[in-house]
């Protein structure tokens, strides 16, 4: 018998999630992003996330950031 979560961890190379914190309060958003980070670290996966207006705590959980302003990459 195969464990589906084991199979998915082996198959997924890159996970793209659009606005996972949309509609969540700041506490729940932070918990969700921490869980995504833990998953990425534990299973050595890359997770690409789009988030509007992250809290400073959430912002600091990301390893790499690409910031956009008016459709342009910000420095």
TrEMBL record:
Subcellular localization is given as: Membrane
The UniProt GO MF terms for this protein read: ATPase-coupled transmembrane transporter activity
List the Gene3D superfamilies hit by this protein, alphabetically: P-loop containing nucleotide triphosphate hydrolases
Name used for this protein in its record: Uncharacterized protein
**Entry membrane topology:** Multi-pass membrane protein
Location, primary (coarse class)? membrane
Q: Which domain of life is it from?
A: Eukaryota
- Does the keyword Manganese belong to this entry? no
What organism is listed for this UniProt entry? Dreissena polymorpha
* SUPFAM superfamilies in the cross-refs: P-loop containing nucleoside triphosphate hydrolases
